[in-house]
Amino acid sequence: MTKQEFVDRVASQGNISRREAADAVDAVLESITDVLKNGGEINFTGFGKFSTQHRKESQKVTIPAATVPKFSAGSTLKTAVKTGGAAMGGGGGF
């Protein structure tokens, strides 16, 4: 799914215009990015947690140490994916 397809889906499910959905999606992505850039984390109960993790240097092939984004899926999201969306009403909503 592309970002535009996702925006269209948000607009449809949220009963808002495509422009409002695009602004909302951009705001969410920018906010998540800002929080992670500053070393914070965001927890959406049932959906998952966005955080950062420090990756150590690899020994066999030199890969420089770095801080990388990390997402841990929550139990509701895991169940929905395993059951094809049944746990979230089939529509993927939260």
Q: In words, what does this structure look like?
A:
The protein is α+β, with helices and mostly antiparallel strands and 94 residues long. The protein is 43% helix and 20% strand. The protein contains three helices and three strands, in the order ααβββα. It has helices at 3-14, 18-37, 75-82, and strands at 42-44, 48-55, 66-73. Strands 1-2-3 form a three-stranded antiparallel β-sheet. α1 crosses α2 (18-37).
SSE blueprint and pairings:
Blueprint: H1 3-14, H2 18-37, E1 42-44, E2 48-55, E3 66-73, H3 75-82
Antiparallel strand pairs: 1-2, 2-3
Helix pairs in contact: 1-2
- In percent, how much strand structure appears in the residues? 15-25%
**Major sheet details:** 3 strands, antiparallel
C-alpha end-to-end distance: 19 Å
Helix content: 40-55%
Give helix and strand order, one letter per element, not per position.
HHEEEH
Rounded average pLDDT = 88
Could you state the oligomeric state of the chains shown?
single chain
Query: Segments where pLDDT lies below 50 for 5+ residues?
Result: 90-94
Q: Report strand order across the widest sheet.
A: 1-2-3
Shape: extended
Helix/strand-derived category reads alpha+beta
